[in-house]
Amino acid sequence: MRKVIVCTFLTLDGVMQAPGGPDEDAESGFRHGGWQKPVDDDEVGTAIAGWYEHSDAMLLGRKTYEIFAAYWPTADPGNPFTDRMNSMDKYVASRTLTSVEWQNSTLLEGDVADAVRRLKATEGGDINVVGSGDLAQTLMRHDLVDEYRLTIHPVIIGTGKRLFADGAIPTALEPVSVSTTKGGTVVGVYRPNGKPSYDSY
């Protein structure tokens, strides 16, 4: 069974929207696009590269797919991620796209939860969900996420889309590895571990 792994950059207050640039995602009037680079460091890049060592596919929502498909095919070939991003299999969940042109891309058919269950049952490596906040919410609601790989950066934005939005399913998490970079970013890997338990002091 292949693992579905949510890989996300977060602010300290949990915002995942538009880390990469001002024009990445201005939905709902978001004005803080590009918040990640000023608080990034080399150790974060090393950790992210490690996230792809055992992955051979990405699972993307429409918006993230379109951002990536517009960038990576013509990205700097000297960037070590360029070849990897272009060569990996891409599975795209969308209710509006009718075709996907980026190499090795496949448009999922039918109900997305059912399609991802079938995908997990195929042969292959891990499947990384990158960005794709709405898709991640759907996968969480259907108990389809096997692991979270998060970089939590030392900045507070105050508004924007959050990975764990209101209505998230209560879930206990088992920490797999947690470290802090020299720039103060927390790099955490967590696995769902049933429901939370409750107690009092």
Unreliable sequence segments: none
Net shape: globular
> Roughly how much helix do the residues carry, as a percent range?
10-25%
H and E order: EHEHHEEHEHEEE
Mean pLDDT: 94
Give a short account of the largest sheet.
8 strands, mixed
Radius of gyration: 17 Å
Number of strands: 8
> Structural class, judged by helices and strands?
alpha/beta
Helical stretch count?
5
Q: Distance between the terminal alpha carbons, to the nearest Å?
A: 40 Å
- The side-by-side strand order for the widest beta sheet comes to 4-3-2-5-1-6-8-7
Provide the β-strand percentage band: 15-25%
Protein name: Dihydrofolate reductase family protein
Organism: Streptomyces salinarius
Domain Bacterial bifunctional deaminase-reductase C-terminal: 2-186
Region (Disordered): 18-37
Task: Give the gist of this structure.
With 201 residues, the chain is of the alpha/beta class. The chain has helices spanning 42-51, 62-71, 80-87, 112-120, 133-141, and strands at 4-11, 55-61, 89-93, 105-107, 126-130, 147-153, 173-180, 186-192.
